[in-house]
Write a structure and sequence with these properties.
Blueprint: E1 2-3, E2 8-15, E3 24-32, E4 37-45, E5 50-54, H1 55-58, E6 67-75, E7 82-89, E8 95-99, E9 110-118, E10 125-133, E11 139-146, E12 152-160, E13 165-168, H2 171-174, E14 182-192, E15 203-211, E16 217-221, E17 223-224
Antiparallel strand pairs: 1-6, 2-5, 2-7, 3-4, 3-6, 7-8, 9-14, 9-17, 10-13, 10-15, 11-12, 11-14, 15-16
Length: 226
């Protein structure tokens, strides 16, 4: 979840089931890159209903200006199923949408995003990638960029602190990839044994292809291998 200073953030939550008489309450907190957690207000959602709110209304204690982090939601006091969606946009409507995704508790240590791009000519496309360490311990993620035919473009180990959210702006530059335009690139994220030992940490990752003229973008959640 991003909220640059000139952008607003809205989100919608919908219950995926009906037939329950009482309203359900979703609890939220917002984790920053530092990481620092900000507790946000709960939202009551009636069965079968959709609720729309804003990040400012949901988390009034957020610092003014730009915020970059992870919005974590859960049913207050128990289980349940629901869908979550957010959009960040300028007053003119330019922006990007981010689908809610479940925390990784089941699906292994490797996830991928396809279709990553770098293009210098107008409108100029830049790809950014994001990693969130779900665990209260440090971890290591190997991020590899590979061309459509499987050739490695760049690869690097990214150290993530406990519960840290990392932005890799212009992921090609961040990984010291060779200069030049590239298209149809696959970003592979693999959690490996941390420096301190133990099992690889659980994580969520995504990438975006950003239009640097209009500053709209699409977010692609990294999908795990099953």
């Amino acid at each position: 979840m991003l909220r640059p200073a000139s952008f607003g953030a809205v989100m919608a939550a919908a219950l995926a089931f009906a037939g329950i008489a009482s309203a359900q309450q979703l609890g939220y907190n917002f984790n920053f890159t530092l990481p620092i957690a900000s507790t946000c207000a709960p939202v009551n959602v009636a069965p079968g209903n959709t609720v729309k709110t804003s990040l400012t209304a949901l988390c009034p204690t957020l610092n003014a200006g730009s915020n970059f982090g992870v919005l974590i939601s859960a049913f207050a006091g128990g289980g349940g199923t629901y869908a979550l969606y957010s959009r960040v946009q300028t007053p003119e409507g330019n922006g990007f949408s981010i689908e809610g995704t479940v925390a990784n508790t089941c699906c292994g240590t490797v996830s991928e995003v396809i279709g990553v791009v770098r293009q210098a000519a107008a409108p100029t496309f830049q790809s950014n990638c994001f990693i969130f360490n779900q665990e209260p311990r440090a971890g290591r993620i190997v991020l590899t960029l590979a061309s459509g035919d499987g050739q490695v473009v760049a690869s690097q180990i990214v150290d993530v602190k406990a519960m840290e959210f990392i932005r890799l702006l212009d992921v090609f530059a961040a990984l010291n990839a060779p200069p030049g335009d590239v298209d149809n690139v696959r970003a592979t994220f693999e959690s490996i044994v941390p420096v301190a030992g133990g099992a690889p940490v659980l994580f969520v990752a995504s990438c975006t292809v950003q239009n640097n003229t209009s500053f709209d973008a699409d977010f692609r959640i990294a999908k795990f291998h099953f």
